[in-house]
């Protein structure tokens, strides 16, 4: 169907913001034609200049506000919105939490599942400075080495020292490293020529352990002035326990390469989640907001109703965070995950923590479910924590075949959650409690939640 486009590029229109898209952009309608407008909030009356026109929608920019939303935070520093560090930074935190709850409610309503309730989002008392990991690109800008963050949808670097949502100890470590790289004239990598040395600085810090790791990602095998830089980091970053060079000499958007060389200290740092000790090396996956991850996973575990006698499957188990925390409340836990290195970490972490009743398998969760089903496995509880694309349909069918009594669904994407709730419904599973959203990524548009389903036909 051809839609008549009523707006023109570079023209200005008066408009009222009617909605906030799931990406956090204001939505205005001009003769029913939707225009997405960054930094515009529902209820605001604005003058919009059209910046880009597509066949079914357009993009615009606010030129002036006639009225502002009471939920608006006046962001002094536009960098955070420009770079996508904090795309919801202009919305008061209480309103961010409501926005996340409403997103799930709206999708349920569209799917005619509005009898399912959604609880208020569990938020953070201090919704800033929460990230325990930073990966910061290094670039030469007008003759000076800079660290910062890319503008949304581009490779143009905005120099930043205070990253707003990262652990401030990490921000200070990055400044120390940046100053040393400047002092010793280390050249930043240039994407166009593939020349230069330093590509990215990565810093991780244990929330409980306070152990800090600095990873210098280089385009070259040799890091010039390595000793001086290492000594400078050790002197300038009191908590540092590990300094690693990671070599990434490929023309790629991937931040880290496969080769690590420990320049100083240990090869890995440690931190705890839900009372379990985890080893974290440069390439390990590890949850970036430990406080809220604990609340999210604890909600999942509390709802599993475990008394030590159950068999539990943890599908999409990553490094086994959920599996290992569940193990002490269950008879046996089975984890499956597609990334081999994550399963190695899971096994290693099980051993270190003396956990013997957790088994980990590398594979596609859907394939492994078919195998478990064929082998006659009868789980009492299936926990799924899938990526954004949700759970494979065959996994849902296998869960029904294995007749698990409960399914706990940890979701990072409400759209696929709602789709999958319908599919679980076809296997006899029904949502037995209000859905609990948990804010894992304050100031951003990510929506995480826990849903409890039970089999009601048997
Ligand atoms: N709970 C985990 C994180 C889950 S994130 C932890 O704390 O470590 C989702 C995971 O699903 C990722 O680790 C991803 O690698 C994995 N994954 C993606 N597709 C998969 C598939 N088809 N089968 C199994 N695992 C998959």
From TrEMBL:
CDD domains named among the record's database cross-references: AdoMet_MTases
UniProt keyword Methyltransferase, yes or no: yes
Enzyme active site: 412
Binding residues for S-adenosyl-L-methionine: 287, 316, 337, 385
Pfam families with a match to the protein in the record: TRAM, tRNA_U5-meth_tr
Listed PROSITE patterns: SAM_MT_RNA_M5U, TRAM, TRMA_1, TRMA_2
Keywords: Methyltransferase, S-adenosyl-L-methionine, Transferase
GO biological process: methylation
Sample GO molecular function, one term: methyltransferase activity
InterPro entries: MeTrfase_TrmA_AS, MeTrfase_TrmA_CS, NA-bd_OB-fold, SAM-dependent_MTases_sf, TRAM_dom, U5_MeTrfase_fam
Ranges for domain TRAM: 6-64
PANTHER family: RNA M5U METHYLTRANSFERASE, TRNA (URACIL(54)-C(5))-METHYLTRANSFERASE
Similarity-based family: Belongs to the class I-like SAM-binding methyltransferase superfamily. RNA M5U methyltransferase family.
Protein name: 23S rRNA (Uracil(1939)-C(5))-methyltransferase RlmD
Protein species of origin: Limosilactobacillus pontis
Organism lineage string: Bacteria, Bacillati, Bacillota, Bacilli, Lactobacillales
């Amino acid at each position: 169907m051809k839609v008549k486009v009523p707006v023109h590029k570079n023209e200005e229109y008066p408009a009222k913001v009617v909605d906030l898209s799931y990406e956090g952009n204001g939505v205005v309608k001009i003769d029913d034609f939707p225009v997405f407008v960054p930094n515009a909030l529902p209820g605001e009356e604005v003058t919009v200049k059209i910046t880009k026109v597509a066949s079914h929608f357009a993009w615009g920019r606010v030129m002036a506000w006639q009225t502002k939303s009471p939920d608006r935070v006046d962001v002094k520093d536009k960098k955070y919105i420009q770079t996508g560090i904090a795309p919801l930074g202009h919305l008061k935190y209480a309103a961010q939490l409501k926005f996340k709850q409403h997103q799930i409610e709206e999708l349920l309503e569209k799917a005619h599942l509005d009898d399912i309730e959604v609880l208020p989002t569990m938020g953070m008392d201090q919704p800033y400075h929460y990230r325990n990991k930073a990966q910061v690109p290094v670039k030469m800008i007008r003759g000076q080495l800079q660290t910062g963050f890319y503008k949304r949808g581009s490779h143009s670097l905005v120099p930043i020292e205070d990253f707003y949502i990262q652990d401030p100890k990490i921000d200070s470590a990055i400044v120390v490293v940046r100053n040393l790289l400047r002092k010793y004239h280390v050249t930043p990598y240039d994407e166009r020529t593939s020349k230069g040395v330093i590509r990215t600085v990565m810093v991780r810090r244990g929330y409980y352990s306070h152990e800090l790791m600095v990873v210098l990602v280089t385009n070259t095998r040799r890091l010039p002035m390595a000793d001086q830089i290492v000594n400078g980091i050790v002197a300038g970053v009191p908590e540092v326990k590990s300094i690693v060079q990671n070599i990434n000499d490929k023309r790629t958007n991937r931040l880290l390469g496969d080769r690590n060389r420990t320049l100083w200290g240990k090869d890995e740092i440690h931190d705890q989640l839900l009372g379990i000790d985890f080893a974290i090396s440069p390439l390990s996956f590890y949850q970036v907001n430990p406080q809220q991850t604990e609340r999210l996973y604890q909600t999942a575990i509390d709802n599993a109703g475990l008394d030590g006698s159950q068999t539990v499957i943890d599908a999409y188990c990553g490094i086994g965070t959920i599996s290992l925390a569940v193990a002490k409340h269950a008879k046996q836990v089975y984890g499956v995950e597609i990334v081999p290195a994550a399963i190695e970490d899971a096994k290693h972490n099980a051993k270190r923590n003396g956990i013997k009743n957790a088994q980990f398998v590398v594979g596609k969760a859907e394939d492994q479910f078919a195998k478990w089903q064929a082998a006659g496995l009868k789980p009492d509880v299936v926990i799924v924590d899938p990526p954004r694309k949700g759970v494979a349909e065959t996994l849902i069918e296998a869960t029904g075949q294995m007749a698990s009594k409960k399914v706990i669904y940890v979701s990072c994407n409400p759209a696929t959650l709602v789709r999958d709730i319908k599919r679980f419904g076809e296997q006899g599973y029904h949502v037995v409690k209000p859905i609990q959203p948990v804010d894992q990524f304050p100031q951003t548009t990510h929506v995480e939640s826990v849903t409890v389903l039970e089999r009601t036909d048997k």
